[in-house]
Specification:
It contains 15 helices and 18 strands. The protein is α/β, with parallel strands linked by helices. It has 3 domains: 184 residues, 3-Layer(aba) Sandwich (Rossmann fold), CATH 3.40.50.880; 186 residues, Rossmann fold (3-Layer(aba) Sandwich), CATH 3.40.50.620; 95 residues, GMP Synthetase, Chain A, domain 3. Helix 5 crosses helix 6, helix 6 packs across helix 12 and helix 14 runs antiparallel to helix 15. The relative contact order is 0.09.
Length: 511
C-alpha cells in the first residue's frame, strides 16, 4: 500500500480519528492514519495526495501540546485541520489560540462568510458538531476567516496555499453537510483518485498472501465471527490445503450462530476445520473470577494454552489473525493520550514463543469493509450482517462470576430476545442487541408461590459508528412479549429490565 496514492491523517489522539478515515474510504479513496510525530520526509514515502490533521484533547498553547514537523506545510500538499488541527495551523503560522469560558460542545451553527472549494454545495447556514473550549483569538497572517459560529471563528483558509481549517467536526454524522465537505476536500481540492476497494482488490489480496506464504502451512483459529470467517475465505482462495483451521468451542459464544458459520465453511467452502470442545476447561478457569479485566485475561491465557497444544501438531509456519484496522490503530496509540481500555483476548505473545510468523490479511480494513469483502467472497449476508459479539463472549455479559447456571440463563434469555427481534422484523433495524445476567435477586410471584430469583437486563442500541449510540425505542407490546417469554421460559429468572442508557455516558457492553 506504500506506493498507492492516499490521504494521510495525522492523529493527535482524537476519539473521532477513525471516523475521518471511514469517511474517506466510503468515497473509495485510500487513506492511512499515522502518528502526528511523523517527519515530512517519512510522510512523503506514503505518497500523499492530501493531509488531514485530526482533533485532539490537548491545547496548542500548553508546553506539552503536540506539534508537527513544520516542513510539512512546505510540501505543497493540500492540508485540512480539524478542531485541534485548525488551532495547530493557527499557532504554527503565528496566530493565537486561547482558552475561553464560552466552550462549544454539541450542535452549533456554521455561517459561511467566504465560499471556497471546501464549502461547495454547502448552504450558507448549516448545523455542525463542535467539541472545544479553546478558540482562535488572533488570525495568522495570510489567512482569512471563512466561517463563524455563535462564539468563535469556525473555519479559516490560507490566502495563497491549499491549507484549510475547521473548528467543528465534519467527520461525525451530527455535522449536517460534513460528508460533503470531506468529499470536496479529497476530490475538488486534493484531486484524489478512487483507488480503494476497486475491482482488483480481492485479486491483489490473494496474490499478496501467496507471495508471503509461498508453500508453508498457515494456522487459523476460527471464532465464527465475520473477521476470522473472511480471513478463512481469503486464505482458502489463496493457498487451499495449506490452510489448517480449528475452532475452540469454549461454550461462551452464541452456540447456534458460531456452529452454523463453522458448518457452512466446512460444507460449502470445503475448509478443513477441527472443532475442539473446551467448555469445562474454560468454565473451571473462570471459577471465582469477578473482575471484568481478570475474566478477559483468563480467557486469553486459556485460549493460548489450547492453541499451543493444537498448533504444535499442525506444523505451521504462519499464524493468521482476523485483526482489523481499528485494532491496529487502537494498539499503536498514535495519539499521545491514547490508553488501553480493555485487554485483547487474542494470542498475545504466542507467535514469538512458538516462532510463528503473523499474517493479517484484513488489517487494513474497517469492520464495514470486512463485511463488504465477505459478501464479495460469497459469504451469505445472514452471517456477514450479524450484530457484533464480544470476543470473550458471554463472559462480559454475566456480571460477576461466570457459572454454568448463569451462562445457561443468559444464553436462553439472549436467544429469546434475538428470536423475537427476527420474528418482528426488527433485527436488521438495530445495530446491536443482547441480554445481560445480573447477579442480583428480586421477589416475584409465579402462580400461588413467592419467588426470589435472578434478573435479566436486555439492551438494544442504534448507532452509525459504535462510538456514540442511542437506545432503540421499541413498542411496549414488543418489550412485554420478550419479558413474558424470558420469565416463563428461563427457569430462575423472575424479572426483566430494559437498559435505557445511551452511549455516552454508558458503554454498549456492561463490562
Amino acid at each position: 500500500m506504500n506506493h498507492q496514492k492516499k490521504i494521510i491523517i495525522l492523529d493527535f489522539g482524537s476519539q473521532y480519528t477513525q471516523l475521518i478515515a471511514k469517511n474517506i474510504r466510503r468515497n473509495h479513496v485510500a487513506c492511512l492514519i499515522v502518528s502526528c510525530k511523523i517527519t515530512a520526509e517519512e510522510l512523503l514515502t506514503n505518497t500523499p495526495t492530501g493531509i488531514i490533521l485530526s482533533g485532539g484533547p490537548e491545547s496548542v498553547y500548553d508546553s506539552n501540546g503536540l506539534k508537527i514537523d513544520k516542513k510539512i506545510f512546505d510540501l505543497n500538499i493540500p492540508i485540512l485541520g480539524i478542531c485541534y488541527g485548525m488551532q495547530l495551523i493557527t499557532d504554527m503560522f503565528g496566530g493565537k489560540v486561547t482558552g475561553s469560558d464560552k466552550s462549544e460542545f454539541g450542535a452549533n451553527e456554521l455561517k459561511i462568510k467566504i465560499n471556497n472549494e471546501l464549502f461547495e454545495d454547502v448552504p450558507k447556514i448549516s448545523k455542525v458538531w463542535m467539541s472545544h473550549s479553546d478558540h482562535v483569538t488572533k488570525m495568522p497572517s495570510n489567512f482569512e476567516i471563512t466561517g463563524e459560529s455563535h462564539n468563535s471563528i469556525a473555519s479559516i483558509k490560507h490566502k495563497n496555499k491549499k491549507i484549510y481549517g475547521v473548528q467543528f467536526h465534519p467527520e461525525v454524522t451530527h455535522t449536517e453537510f460534513g460528508s460533503v465537505m470531506i468529499s470536496n476536500f479529497i476530490f475538488k481540492i486534493c484531486e484524489a483518485e478512487k483507488n480503494w476497494m476497486n475491482n482488483n482488490f480481492i485479486e491483489n489480496k490473494i496474490n499478496k498472501i501467496r507471495e508471503t506464504v509461498k508453500n508453508n502451512v498457515v494456522i487459523l483459529a476460527l471464532s465464527g465471527g465475520v473477521d476470522s470467517s473472511v480471513v478463512a475465505l481469503l486464505l482458502q482462495r489463496a493457498i487451499g490445503k495449506q490452510l489448517k483451521c480449528f475452532f475452540v468451542n469454549h461454550g461462551l459464544l452464541r452456540d447456534e450462530e458460531c456452529l452454523e458459520v463453522i458448518n457452512y465453511l466446512k460444507t460449502c467452502e470445503k475448509i478443513n476445520i477441527d472443532i475442539i470442545d473446551a467448555k469445562q476447561l474454560f468454565l473451571s478457569a473462570l471459577s471465582g473470577k469477578i473482575d471484568p479485566e481478570d475474566k478477559r485475561k483468563t480467557i486469553g491465557a486459556k485460549f493460548i494454552e489450547v492453541f499451543e497444544k493444537e498448533a504444535i501438531t499442525l506444523n505451521g509456519k504462519y499464524l493468521a489473525q482476523g485483526t482489523i484496522y481499528s485494532d491496529v490503530i487502537e494498539s499503536s496509540g498514535h495519539g499521545k493520550t491514547s490508553k488501553t481500555i480493555k485487554s485483547h483476548h487474542n494470542v498475545g505473545g504466542l507467535p514469538e514463543k512458538m516462532h510463528l510468523k503473523i499474517i493479517e490479511p484484513v488489517n487494513d480494513l474497517f469492520k464495514d469493509e470486512v463485511r463488504e469483502l465477505g459478501v464479495a467472497l460469497g459469504l451469505p449476508k445472514k452471517y456477514v450482517n450479524r450484530h457484533p459479539f464480544p470476543g470473550p463472549g458471554f463472559t462480559v455479559r454475566i456480571l460477576g462470576e461466570v457459572t454454568e447456571d448463569a451462562l445457561n440463563k443468559v444464553k436462553k434469555a439472549d436467544h429469546i430476545f434475538i428470536e423475537e427481534l427476527q420474528k418482528h422484523d426488527l433485527y436488521d433495524k438495530v445495530s446491536q442487541a443482547f441480554a445481560v445476567f445480573l447477579p442480583i435477586k428480586s421477589v416475584g410471584v409465579m402462580g400461588d408461590y413467592r419467588t426470589y430469583d435472578n434478573v435479566i437486563a436486555i439492551r438494544s442500541i442504534n448507532t452509525v459508528d459504535f462510538m456514540t449510540g442511542t437506545i432503540t425505542n421499541f413498542p411496549f407490546d414488543f418489550l412485554t412479549k420478550v419479558s413474558t417469554r424470558i420469565v416463563n421460559e428461563v427457569k430462575g429468572i423472575n424479572r426483566v429490565v430494559y437498559d435505557i442508557t445511551s452511549k455516552p455516558p454508558g458503554t454498549i457492553e456492561w463490562e
